[in-house]
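Objective 1b. Sequence-to-structure analysis of Thioesterase domain-containing protein.
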Amino acid sequence: MLDNEQYRQLVIDTARHKSSHYYYSAEVPAQVISADAQSRSAVIQTTVTDSEICASGCIDEGWVATVADYWTSTMISVANEGKSAVTTSLSVQAVKSIEPGCVVLIKCQVTDTGLSMPHAIATFESENGDIYALATHTKFFKSLKK
């Protein structure tokens, strides 16, 4: 089994190879600050800007969905040795208002790799644990026809 630093580097390397053509959030400045191989989780840090906050003062749900898709897909791929999957369900919820310039910790965890439908969650939190947004992501492994 990989140690946590090796696992963190695997998450970084997997994310780095995602095309911004398919994943807008590949261009969102973010840093993987920690990872845990045993719990199949990682913490990604970013700073929210004015353009990522909607009229209600919360993180825009479209931005949350895009970023959650990128990072939870990365985590699911890492947990399943790079196996390719497609989204079957992606749900997001804004929870609390936020100010521009706030540091956000995106805590992603693969909760079920299953045989065909892996699942992951992401929480968008402040450094003191306030939750700004939540996302759940279920994927389906592609079957390759021979």
